[in-house]
Amino acid sequence: MTSNVDKMAVIVRDLVKQFDSFMAVNHISFSVPKGEIFGFLGPNGAGKSTTIRMLCGILLPTSGSGTVAGYDILTQPEQIKAHIGYMSQKFSLYEDLTVEENIDFYAGIYGVPPGQLEERKNWTLEMAGLSGRRGSLTSELSTGLKQRLAFGTALIHQPDVLFLDEPTAGVDPISRREFWELIYDTTARGVTVFVTTHFMEDAEHCDRLGMIYGGKLIALGSPAELKAAFHAGILLEICAQPMMRALEVLEGVPEARDVTIFGQMLHVLIEREMDAERICRALEEAQVSCRYSVISPSLEDVFIGLIEEADRQTAEGQG
Amino acid sequence: MLLRTWLIFWKEFIQIKRDPRLIGVVIGLPLVTLILYGYAFNLDVKHLPLAVYDQDRSPTSRNLINAFSRNEYFDVVDYPLSYQAITHDIDSGKALVGLVIPVNFAKDLAVGRTAQVLIILDGSDSTTATSALNYANSIVVQYSAGITLAALQRQGVIAGRAVPVDNRARFWYNPELKSSYFLVPGLIALILSSLSSLLTSVTVARERERGTIELLDVSPVMPVELIIGKLVPYVLIALGDVVLIMIAAVLLFHVPLRGDPLLVILSALVFLLCVLGLGIFISVNAKTQQLAQTIASLTTQLPSVFLSGFVFPISSMPLVVQWFTAIVPATHFIAILRTIFLKGGGFSLIWAQFLILLVMGLAIITFSARRFKKKL
């Protein structure tokens, strides 16, 4: 157990948060090893931010236990706050302070010793690519630069665990890629990164993922594991015209186990390869053009599939 | 602990410095309020326009008119020659008061009969009309006392003693009853309450609106550090404004500052505890800056004007409302200010109100800090 705590940056056991009659987080358990990039996925309202708030020491759980950076979330929230870094989707540094003032402020708040301040500040400025712009007002920076500054500031006190709440929202693809480079550099130095996102592209970058839905953890594993475990079947990508007619037809074909719209395409889950021919014939008989290929599922497929599965179980449980 | 409080203070000061609107509020609001209330808001009833319809046209009637125009309360603006004309003067607002002296005025007096005069008042402004009637009454009473006395002396009834009981009134502290003496000290309370509730209510709401509160939430900053760090800059600004208003009061409005200016500042400090605490409380509970401002003006500014005795005397309010005035911090602060400014009173005269403010202030601040902790 002790060695487990030593190796783990985050441990959560049976965590529950109840708001009146609403179960926001429903008995979730997982752990995150040190140095890992852990992605926390889920639609809005699934319990993502409630979980993060409990892990950051600003919300007490109703029941359950956990540690973050070795400190107990029930009894040591203040120690947790001092040993984690946090960055949110909404840029939350002070726009009317300069780059340097923001860094100085948070360095002081987190108790960076004066002797180390200059070194930490230079490191942050360099990492954010803002070395020449110490005196610029933060409001004058581009979104990408602001994000890098917020990231650097979150690391100013060299925290053990870094929480990123939807960090890439509203950032262009190039900045997003550069941002992930920063995250990799950070974990390379032993920092654990706990990131929430609903961008599947981001999720692919994570070492491991936890998916939360309706307050429950519905999946846990590496992206590859999740994809593999999800599919007891084969995924077809069908280009069918007209699409609405195709959807109607496929409802009557038992071999098409699951149909989802993916942009201009349909993703259809089947059991055996030979079912593909049958589906295509059925569509063509209904005057729908059909071209198909077998594809490997994306995380989005997995995600949607898991949610539908969870919804079905809830419905059955109620019925 | 101290370092983090200092950092919040430092950060808040930079933000204030960079916000031109805020600087405008800090300097502009006290000045505009001072000028508005100090110059335009005048309760003195003087130089009332008077129209005189003198039907008698005798030396005696002219004496009475002189008695009216001699003092600074009435200015004769017109001598209409008919009843319609004097009515028109009042209707048109040319005169607020009309004096009609009947034909037999001098004759009646000469034979020892009671003579009558008619005073017409524009009652649409009841405050002014009441004051005008009082002035007119006392002028007429004085005038007739003079006539009675002269008559008695002529008949040799009395020789030396004039009137049996002579009522001599003395107005202490403000012998000329200048309304600026009464208003300007109270203005300090009024300006401080609008200013500080406005500023503080904006400060936390601003952090919430911009999302910056989120980072503070997850940081090791304690609510107490945040509240103190955020309040101190505004306390300093407000005290600066107190000094500014005191200087303006003495130099611009010639209001005497008979007591100790330091005592004014010290009392301002305990008063600030109350209004700033209230501001923080509003700030914590309101979602947006705008809502915070609205609530602040409703709960702080309005009671400070209407329920504090700033203009309207508390003793003439309904009893229930009077109880209510006791929980308005401005009520106590204004009482303190008038005591120090006009009576030159020291701490021995104000300690009770001082204590009330101190207790109220500490209670509000503690309550807000608790509430703050829960909200975060």
Into which percent range does the helicity of residues of chain B fall?
A: 55-70%
Task: Enumerate how many helices of chain A there are, as a single number.
Answer: 12
Largest sheet of chain A: 6 strands, mixed
Low-confidence region ranges of chain A: none
- Tell me the β content of chain A: 25-35%
Termini separation of chain A comes to 41 Å
Give the CA-CA distance, first to last residue of chain B.
18 Å
Cα-atom radius of gyration of chain A: 23 Å
Spatial strand order of the main sheet of chain A: 6-7-8-3-9-10
**How large is the share of residues in beta strands of chain B?**
5-15%
Count of alpha and pi helical runs of chain B: 14
Please state the overall shape of chain A, judged from the principal axes of the Cα atoms. globular
Biggest protein-protein contact in the assembly: A-B, 25 and 22 residues
- Portion of residues within helices of chain A: 40-55%
Please provide the count of β strands of chain A: 14
Strand order of the largest sheet of chain B: 2-1-3-4
Q: Would you kindly provide a written description of the structure presented here, covering whatever features stand out?
A:
- The complex is a heterodimer of chains A (319) and B (376).
- With 319 residues, chain A is of the alpha/beta class.
- Chain A has twelve helices and 14 strands.
- Chain A has helices at residues 2-7, 48-55, 77-83, 99-109, 114-128, 143-154, 173-188, 200-204, 223-230, 243-251, 275-285, 299-318, and strands spanning 8-19, 22-33, 37-41, 63-68, 71-72, 84-88, 161-165, 192-197, 208-213, 216-221, 234-241, 258-262, 265-270, 289-295.
- In chain A, strands 6-7-8-3-9-10 form a six-stranded mixed β-sheet, sandwiched between helices. In chain A, strands 2-1-4-5 form a four-stranded antiparallel β-sheet.
- In chain A, strand 4 and strand 5 form a beta hairpin.
- Chain A is globular.
- The relative contact order of chain A is 0.12.
- The mean pLDDT of chain A is 88.
- Chain B is mainly alpha-helical.
- Chain B is 68% helix and 6% strand.
- Chain B contains 14 helices and four strands.
- Chain B has helices at residues 2-18, 20-40, 59-70, 83-91, 105-110, 126-154, 179-210, 212-217, 223-251, 261-285, 289-306, 319-325, 329-343, 347-375; strands at 48-54, 74-78, 97-101, 118-121.
- Chain B has a four-stranded mixed β-sheet, sandwiched between helices.
- In chain B, helix 3 (59-70) links the parallel strand 1 and strand 2 (74-78).
- Chain B is elongated and about 95 Å long.
- The model of chain B has no long low-confidence stretch (mean pLDDT 84).
- Classes of the chains: A alpha/beta (319), B mainly alpha (376).
